[in-house]
Amino acid sequence: MNVGRTIAELREERARVAGGETVALVPTMGAFHEGHLALFRAARAECDAVFVSLFVNPAQFGAGEDLERYPRDERRDAALAEAAGVDVLFVPSADELYPPGFATWVDVADTGAEGEARPGHFRGVATVCLKLVNLVRPDVAYFGPSRPSATTTASRCRRGTRISPRPTGRARWHYRARSRARAEPRIRSQPCAPS
């Protein structure tokens, strides 16, 4: 498994993927658990190259939220990702994705009660998802949020921007809902509503 920390390194890794090979993206904030590993395994089974981001996104944490206490153990996460067959682990700094002077955001309307309780959260989720999709240009993107509202945000971002993982007939987004009740939740293909 290769680890990239800069956009330039990520682009080098992406350029190594041969034409015609399918590329998966699994965006994460780390602290990998069985739900993440299930996504990695599904991506590995379905795609030729698996890219995983490990980025604790400061843009989705509001004032008084637990950004600094969010669990981080890159060495453990890297070992788990490698064991699950991930090809590239992208571990950027906040400055790499949000450079000084950054002022372009993706806003998603109608985020419901959670959006009202966490102003700016879904803007941060949508913005980083769009950035990662643009950088990796995957054929398939896998999402495993703990909340249906996050899945809805990613889906609205995709539809609203008209960006597919890559503009081919096979491009699709998969959503896998994390569940404590089942270790291997089902994959649902877009178009879908959160379950």
SSE topology:
Elements lengths: L1 E3 L2 H9 L7 E6 L5 H13 L2 E6 L19 H10 L4 E3 L3 H4 L14 H6 L3 H16 L3 E4 L4 H14 L10 E4 L12 E2 L6
Parallel strand pairs: 1-4, 2-3, 2-5, 3-4, 5-6
Antiparallel strand pairs: 6-7
Keywords:
single chain; 195 residues; alpha/beta; Rossmann fold; seven-stranded mixed β-sheet; 14% strand; disordered C terminus
Shape: globular
Order of strands in the sheet with most strands: 1-4-3-2-5-6-7
Q: Helix/strand/pairing class, anyone?
A: alpha/beta
Q: Helix fraction?
A: 25-40%
> Which runs of at least 5 residues are low in confidence (pLDDT < 50)?
166-195
Number of domains: 1
Order of helices and strands: EHEHEHEHHHEHEE
What is the distance, rounded to the nearest whole angstrom, between the alpha carbons of the first and last residues?
A: 33 Å
CATH architecture: 3-Layer(aba) Sandwich
Give the biggest sheet: 7 strands, mixed
The proportion of strand residues reads 5-15%
Kindly report the CATH topology: Rossmann fold
Radius of gyration: 16 Å
Total of helices: 7
CATH class: Alpha Beta
Number of strands: 7
Average pLDDT, all residues: 78
In the CATH hierarchy, what is the superfamily? HUPs
